[in-house]
Amino acid sequence: MKLCKMMFCFLIGASNFSLAQTTVEHEASLKETDQVQIWVSKGLTAHRKDDLMDAITWLSKAAKEGHAHAKAMLGYIYIRSGENELALPLLTAAADLNEGLAQYELATIYGQGTLVEKNDGKAVELLEKSIAQDYFPAFVTLAKAHEEGSLGLKKNNAKALEYYQQASDKGYSTATYRLISAYKNGELGLAINQQKVKDLKAMLDKASKQRKEDSVAKMNVDQY
Fold this sequence. Notes:
Elements: H1 2-28, H2 32-48, H3 52-64, H4 68-80, H5 84-96, H6 100-112, H7 120-132, H8 136-148, H9 157-169, H10 173-185, H11 194-222
Helix pairs in contact: 2-3, 3-4, 4-5, 5-6, 6-7, 7-8, 8-9, 9-10, 10-11
């Protein structure tokens, strides 16, 4: 009987050891990409909470592993913190990896000529690349450049309207507001069209309602 109990205890102990070993092995075998993504998520969460030190810590770990968005976000943070020498290499590396945020930030830098020699052609090129990544602010910035005739471009309402419309169709409200103003006041070569104004406002209201519903649904799910 005692022998049976001893064998039972041994088997339980062995089972617990095996389970612990399996857990360790699982953690050790966690895909590198999964681990990096966890760091990125922690960094982005910290940034949303304005905890820049924590954000930099986690994003730096991911950036060292070559994560493009981590590099871009670090560059974004450093630029706004006045750490330009740290920002430029990160933004350049991320832009080379086709990261839309980095391409947009670099376009702004080249367009302003504050940290590098002003280069309108390079700015436009980077904005076009950012647009290819569906980075919405790039649509509006390039649309404004065509509308105003800046960044070395000639005024071109048709091109401006094209970029505003593309961004609006993708759900970027800033572009939609510009279209509402254009149809209301007869700008960008458009005729005044109150029905268009009404339709665009309805589209914004619908999108806003959907975002609120999604937010409430997420809160409900997070409770469990």
